[in-house]
Structure formats: C-alpha cells, structure tokens
Design brief:
431 residues; alpha+beta; Rossmann fold; Dna Ligase, domain 1; 6-stranded antiparallel sheet; 14 helices; binds adenosine monophosphate; binds glycine
Length: 431
C-alpha cells in the first residue's frame, strides 16, 4: 500500500448505498482517489466508474491490481457471499467486508438462527425443514398463525413470507421446497414465530471483537404509504430511530449487540466489516430478525451523512484488523431519505427515461443515485427500480421531511413514484 493517509479506494456496487459510500470517501482527508465498479450515472459525474459487475470476482481482482487499489469497500451481499473479500485479500488489497465464511451470517438464515440459539441471543422461535412433508406436518400440528416462512439463502429480500393462515403457509412451503422458487436458496426453510412490534436497523462496524455502534435508523420496506403492498429493497429511511431510545439501546447493547459480536468472534468468523442487525422491539424485549454483513440501503443514505467521525478512517481500521478505539461523533441533526422509484417497481418497470434535476441542491441535501446511467449524450436516465435517494439533514425530522419532499417535487421523470409518508410514524409520536 502506498501510504495509509493517501488511499486509493474502490467501492464495489451500484446503488444509493454505494453512492453514499463514495461521497463519504471523497470527503475524507485519508482518500486520494475513489473509483467504483460498476457504479452508476450519478457517481460517474464525479469519479471514474469501471464497467465490471459486482459479482465478477476475477474481473474485480484484476481491476484492483491494475488500478493499484489500497482499500476495497464491498457494498452488496452477493459478492461477499461469493468470497470477493477473500479474493481481493489474496492480492494484498485491504478490504472492508467479511470473507465468505462470515458472510454466511447473511447468506444462511439457518446458520444465523443456530448461532443465536447457541449463544442465547433473543430471536423468534423457529424450526428448520428440508422436506415439504415434514414442514406441512408442522404447519398442521404445531404452528400458530400468522407464521413466517423464510428461505434459508439469499433471495434479494423476497425470501420471507408472512402467512396469515395455514393455506398461505402451505403454498409458501411448496413454492420453496417443491417448486424451488428461490432455487437452492430455498432448498432449506425456516418456519418462524411471528413477532409484533416496531423494527429498527442497528449498524455496527466490527473489527474482530471490537466494534462501534453507528446511528440507529428505520427503513420503510413496503412499496405503499401506510406500510402497504409488497416488500421492496426499502423506500425510505430516517435516523435516528427514536423508538430505540437510550434506555432501549442499552438493553439492545447488553442482550444483542455485545453477545452477537462475541459469538461471531468465538465461532472464528472474522468479521472485518458491517454487522447490520435487524431488530424487532417486542413487548417482551428486543429480538433479532436477521443479520446482514453489509450496510443497509437506504439506511446508509441517512447514517453516513450524520457521521462526524470519518467513516473511512473506521473502515480502514476494520480492514486492517485494528481495534476501533475512537469515540464516535454523530451530528445531532436527524436525516431523512425518500427513495424515488420507477413506476411499477418492485415488479417490472421501464428504463431509459430522462431525469430532470433541480438546478441547485442545498448544502444540507444529497441526491444519491441508484438505478441511473448516462445515455449517449451524457444525460442521466433511469436504469433500475430504485432510481434516486433524496436525503436531507435538518434541525428537526419534520423539517428534513418537508425539505426532502420539496426536492422530490423538483425531480422529474416519466412514471416516477415515491412514498409520501417517510418518517410519518416517528413524526406522529413527536409532541
Ligand atoms: P428478514 O429478511 O429475515 O429480515 O425478513 C424481512 C422482513 O420480514 C423483516 O424486516 C420483517 O419485516 C419481516 N419479518 C421477518 N421475520 C419476522 C418475524 N419473525 N416476525 C414478524 N416479521 C418478520
Ligand atoms: N434496507 C434493508 C436492507 O438493506 O436490507
């Protein structure tokens, strides 16, 4: 590596999360240059993007060597599960992100459930099945409804079904185990107790046994206002998630965060990266819904802008396996992000529509690009389901929401869609 204080950074991925990571790197005094692969239309305006897909391990290894990359930050879960971090480390690149072994914490829900149970970390009760006859039997004799049916492996956020009754649950079981709707990802399933309460996203940066807790946040997973319609990758977020008040955060830290980091280390899983714990705050205390081993999207788009401590410095320490000793400094202002999607998402949608942007973006606002690219004339056009993330940092959450929505109105493309109620649950609780 050339010099620790003058890094060339490669960000792998093409979403709003990765654009926020690129932005954080560009603002860091430790960064000499940031490049992305494959990147998107928004990043391409500021940095060099290389057309290498995020799951092309050999292509990325070659790119990192040719470009003499010091540090790679891997955004999405698929390349982590395929072992991209291991592949780059073999070439001497520092990597923020777990190797294949620790990526199982996201890549296999059964693996994580067993770890949680082994270490007594609170989570929903569940049973594991590979044969549909056994699962159907369980649904008839043991299950209480609603019940949750989960494909074991990665399924791009579509592998979880909350079944209201036995018939629906049986359909989900057959779809996974008999019809192989999710391929091998659904060859093993979990049937899980349905939890009720409010969800929150807890992000940690982990370097072995040491960690920092990043600002809390809350996602909005459903496509429609009032949390209706199908699940999406996430339609908006805000931070902090006030439902996780300081007292609850202490409980979460004692019962979930610390034991999880300890358990992961005790199992010899070298996690040099993000641990994103999805939790449900139930009446009987917080429970783990899932582990992810990468930043949430859109959560990252509200977390990073609130960090006063340089995120790149922390990521570099993680990647180098150094303990994280710094006290985290967080801006007090809340942040809110509204995702603008292409009409039709999460089902089929059009691509290639021209996007019109506001003439000026205020300094407290960020328009993060996700599904965008540039056309032949260099204009920004739509290229994905979630197209943009509009984040605003303001004195109050209400102010952030108002300013974010005002900006959304100035961004135009054919058939654009966004939820009108991001942050509404939190705002209704505020005095
Ligand atoms: P997962 O990928 O496991 O986080 O599940 C995706 C979403 O499904 C979560 O964010 C929750 O909204 C919901 N979910 C997952 N597990 C449960 C559960 N046991 N009870 C209620 N909702 C759940
Ligand atoms: N926003 C949820 C996720 O990134 O998984």
């Amino acid at each position: 590596m050339s010099s620790q204080t003058s890094l060339k950074v490669l960000v792998v991925g093409s979403g709003g999360r990765e654009h926020a990571l690129v932005q954080a790197c560009r603002e860091s005094p430790l960064c000499r240059e940031v490049i992305a692969a494959p990147g998107n239309g928004g990043m391409a305006g500021d940095i060099t993007c290389f057309p290498v897909a995020a799951d092309n391990l050999e292509g990325l290894a070659r790119l990192a060597s040719e470009q003499e990359v010091d540090l790679a930050i891997i955004g999405p879960e698929v390349p982590l599960s395929l072992g991209l971090a291991d592949r780059l480390r073999e070439n001497g690149v520092l990597v923020y992100g777990p190797g294949k072994k620790a990526a199982r914490l996201e890549g296999s829900k059964v693996f994580t459930k067993e770890l949680l149970e082994k270490y007594g970390i609170p989570t929903a009760e569940s049973a594991t099945f590979t044969r549909s006859a056994d699962a159907l039997n369980y649904l008839g004799e043991r299950a209480r409804y609603p019940v949750v049916v989960k494909a074991d492996g990665l399924a791009a956020g579509k592998g979880v079904l909350i079944a209201g009754d036995r018939e629906e649950a049986e359909k989900a079981v057959r779809a996974c185990l008999d019809e192989r709707k999710f391929g091998d990802s659904g060859g093993t399933i979990l049937i899980e107790e349905h939890l009720t309460g409010e969800e929150a996203s807890i992000h940690l940066m982990v370097s072995g046994t040491s960690f920092v807790v990043l600002p809390t946040s809350q996602d909005h997973k459903r496509i429609g206002d009032g949390d209706t319609g199908p699940n999406t990758g996430g339609m908006g977020a805000y931070s902090p998630a006030e439902v996780v008040d300081p007292e609850s955060l202490e409980v979460v830290r004692d019962r979930i965060i610390q034991p999880s980091v300890d358990a992961i280390a005790a199992e010899g899983l070298d996690l040099l990266g993000t641990l994103f714990i999805g939790i449900m705050l139930t009446e009987s205390g917080p429970r783990v819904l899932e582990f992810n081993v990468r930043f949430g999207d859109p959560e990252t788009q509200v977390i990073l802008p609130r960090m006063e401590t340089d995120p790149l410095e922390l990521m570099l320490d993680c990647a180098s396996g150094k303990p994280l000793t710094k006290e985290l400094q967080i801006r007090p202002e809340p942040a809110l992000c509204v995702v603008i999607a292409a009409g039709g998402y999460p089902k089929s949608y059009r691509k290639g529509d021209l996007i019109e942007f506001p003439p000026k973006t205020p300094t407290n606002a960020f328009i993060f690009h996700a599904g965008t690219s540039t056309d032949r004339e260099g204009r920004i056009v739509t290229a994905g389901g979630r197209v943009l993330g509009v984040t605003v940092l303001a004195e109050t959450l209400a102010g952030a929401a108002q300013q974010a929505y005002a900006l959304c109105e100035e961004i135009r493309f054919a058939d654009s869609y966004y939820r009108r109620d991001i942050g509404a649950k939190q705002l209704s609780r505020e005095p």
